[in-house]
């Protein structure tokens, strides 16, 4: 004969589970790999205006080709995509409005880096959508990777500059 198992929770367990349920109700859900449907890149301007760029919007900008080595890949790689400056100004902001500002760049895994908006003009990084002729997927550092022309500029071959290469980029907040 099988005996029915009886579960007994202590008062401490009840309080613990109740507290966890209450916290779960008020805490935001984790955002890992979450972005607005259809939006490849969200840009928040200092005015509070939010722009959501879809793949088609990024494809419509003039694209550049950049061939360079990276610390994360073997040999030279070919990257294609628009200049960061073209993405930033595509909504109407000007270089003078962006001068001296900072950019908070966020990746799908919640990694974030703050870099000078002036980098967009000083170093001409590309917001790469393709690597070696293929669209980048999330597993391949895509869909967007901020790539600097490292081989062309010795001042970009420093570890502090390598930290600015953010991949899986999906959000830019102009500070």
UniProtKB/TrEMBL annotation:
All copies of the Oxidoreductase molybdopterin-binding domain together span 67-149
What Gene3D superfamilies does the entry give?
A: Oxidoreductase, molybdopterin-binding domain
TM helices/strands, residue ranges: none
- Classification via Pfam families: Oxidored_molyb
From what superkingdom does this record's organism come? Bacteria
Protein name stated in the entry: Oxidoreductase molybdopterin-binding domain-containing protein
Record organism: Paracoccus versutus
